[in-house]
């Protein structure tokens, strides 16, 4: 999440971050003020956020 961009995800940076996480060896992630989460769950969550961004962009492009 980009706190300098009104707390929104940057889709390019998010995709890069997901790719980085997929290539790292770890079992558990400790995100900020949240509960620990395993690698599969955090990647699944971030991919769902990435998908939402692109669906919003497509919708915006269609109806703009």
Q: Helix amount, in percent? A: 55-70%
Radius of gyration from the alpha-carbon trace, in angstroms = 13 Å
Low-confidence stretches: none
Arithmetic mean of pLDDT: 87
N-to-C terminal Cα separation, in Å?
26 Å
Protein name: MBL fold metallo-hydrolase
Describe the structure.
With 64 residues, this protein is mainly α. It has one domain (11-63). The chain has 2 helices and 2 strands; from the N terminus they run αββα. A hairpin with a 7-residue loop joins strand 1 (28-29) and strand 2 (37-38). The two termini are 26 Å apart. The mean pLDDT is 87. This is MBL fold metallo-hydrolase. It comes from Clostridium malenominatum.
């Amino acid at each position: 999440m980009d706190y300098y961009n009104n707390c929104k995800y940057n889709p390019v940076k998010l995709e890069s971050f997901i790719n980085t996480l997929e290539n790292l060896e770890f079992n558990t992630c400790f995100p900020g003020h949240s509960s620990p989460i395993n690698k599969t769950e955090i990647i699944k969550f971030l991919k769902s956020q990435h998908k939402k961004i692109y669906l919003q962009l497509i919708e915006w492009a269609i109806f703009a």
